[in-house]
Amino acid sequence: MPLTAAIEVPAGQTDPRHLEVKLRIANPAGGKIAVHNPDMGVAAPAMNWSFSQEMYQTSMLISFGYLSISVTDEAGNELPQQAIQTWATPVLQPKLELGPGDSFEVAIPIGDLYQLAPAHAYWVTLTYGDQDLKVSAGTRLVAP
Questions:
Q1: Residue of 17, 59, 66, 119 with fewest CB within 10 Å of its CB?
Q2: In terms of Cα–Cα distance, which of 97, 103, 106 is closest to 128?
């Protein structure tokens, strides 16, 4: 796989309902790699979008198959994902050209999509990309 992915859990988060992770995608290869651009635009004012811009981007990425998320509890049970409808069609941006050593991150509001219990551990798996190139990462996290 020409790309690497890692999930980062920013420190200082105190509410599992607003827990956010960052998916960092990097190019460790020696040449340029084109990857799907996560910029899915912004919610139209007529949508009356009540969530964050990160939630809009995440919802659009999921809706169009560019991002999949799996969250399982310590017993191995997969948690159901809350469906958040965007009712929008994105204008796809040109692919990102990642040079050697370049990276980008995608903020993913896990707490808006899953009902996480405080102080419980979960395994989070994220897969990002399009039909040409996908990359996956997993991590164990403990909800605040």
A1: 119
A2: 106
